[in-house]
Specification:
This protein is an alpha/beta fold. The strands form 5 sheets. It has a 4-stranded antiparallel β-sheet with strand order 3-4-7-8. It has 21 helices and 12 strands. The structure holds one RNA strand of 74 nucleotides.
Amino acid sequence: MDDPKTSQSLFGPRARIAPSPTGYLHIGTARTALFNFLFARKHGGQFILRIEDTDPKRSKKEYEENIYEGLKWLGIMWDEGPDIGGDYGPYRQSERVDIYEKYLRQLLDENKAYYCFCTPEELEAQRRDMISRGLPPKYSGKCRHLPPETVKQYLAQGKHSVIRFKMPPKEVKFHDLIRGEIKVDLNLIGDIVIARNLREPLYNFSVVIDDYLMKITHIIRGEDHISNTPKQIAIQEALGLPRPIYAHLPMILGPDRSKLSKRHGAMPVTEYRKMGYLPEAIVNFIALLGWHPASDREIFNMEELIKEFSLKRVQKSGAVFNVNKLNWFNSQYLRHLSLDKLTKIVREYLQKYSDKAELLKEYSDEYLRKVIEIELTRINKLSDLIVLSDFFFEKNLRYSPDLLVWRDMTLAEVKQSLQDSAKVLQQINQKDFLRSNIQVKLFEFIEKSPQYRGDKGRLLWPLRVALSGKKASPSPFEIAEILGKKETLRRIEVALKKI
RNA sequence: GGCGCUAUCGUCUAGUCUGGUUAGGACGCGGGGCUUUCAAUCCCGUAACAUGGGUUCAAAUCCCAUUAGCGCCA
């Protein structure tokens, strides 16, 4: 009845992501979300967001909000979810316990699941025994055949229990869209715990119920779920539910090729935002982590990704997260933005994340825009701007007088050099104080001055340092134009006093 | 320990299905041009088919084994 193929052809596929709000949205989850989103959009289906907050101790509202925020920021929008509703809600697992209970009771009634009263100590002893005998450590099935009266009695006594699923002794085969046929012998798994009690179902059980009731046709998730899949299929079959189509994505790895985690310095998506990465760059970058189009092209916006995306071209092996490449993508996107748009983005960014936001108020968009324009080739991410362009907003530059010295110049020569620059700049009218003009005038002066002609640095280096206070910066012409005649001359004065 | 997944430059990858490529692209890295510095940019370069057996005139590609890495369970 619920053949996914049928519903796919009629309404498009339904894909989902089901993060648990026990931490901030991280890159791996964002990538899984993106692939589900791209797949659903490409085939005219729906992308569903479900929150797996069945663990009340670890689940936090703050994390749930962070997941929404991060996904929205990346432009990955869901069609159904806890915040916007939908026809198959509720979309928060904590609000679905009545539903789970119903199915749990069904399994219990049909004798496909049972209460287990074994204590953790017993279980541990069993496990050790199995291992010592070279057997796979699975549950012995001790409580499988407890008489119903005994179960009732134990329950009434409040004896500690869990609900176990009777794993059928057979082999499960399933087709993975990315990996092909995968088969696993359920005999090796044993009777897994599917709930702590009727009101506290566990992941492998609840996910099956949710995916069925939400009419999920395609389960696209991380490779780390491959070994859960046969268990979930067994539960589906016990309940007589249809099997969705599976696709297991390769893992995102840290530099040591193990699962990307905090210890690799992996940060939540919102943290990348704080560092000044553009959402488009992150989306483009993570799309290429485990997926690649047939062409050599690498830059894709969301619309193009939807058009190009195909699960067939998803990689099987894990992909190392490479910040260098992310930086490159980000710098590409940064430079393709219009200056007006970028100025707006920068101002918003600085206001939100810079501690110098106050300082910024004194400066016009025009000023900010010019600063961005000349610093643009030097930055990978917006936070770089704060470090590189601070001298445009700082009144008192702090630098050592030694920095003013170009190569083997003496301090006296540096002093002379700055005085010469000041003299030339002084002669330029306020309204002609533009970079090209400044450059022309300074170069003319250099041409007729033997002491500078062979080595322009003797004039330009001290000037540039006087204006920027840095050993690396844009050219003095560009800086001077932005600073304006008055401030430029003032900074030269300050420099002269330092010598 | 058991089971599962994976294997092309340092990294992301194209090529593998359908055997014949100087094994391609990108990031990074190195060198050079431009240049007052740092960038940007342009040019050049660096670097890979995990190993061992087969099959074949011919193997990155097909088959088998091994090794290694990772994941899940506990």
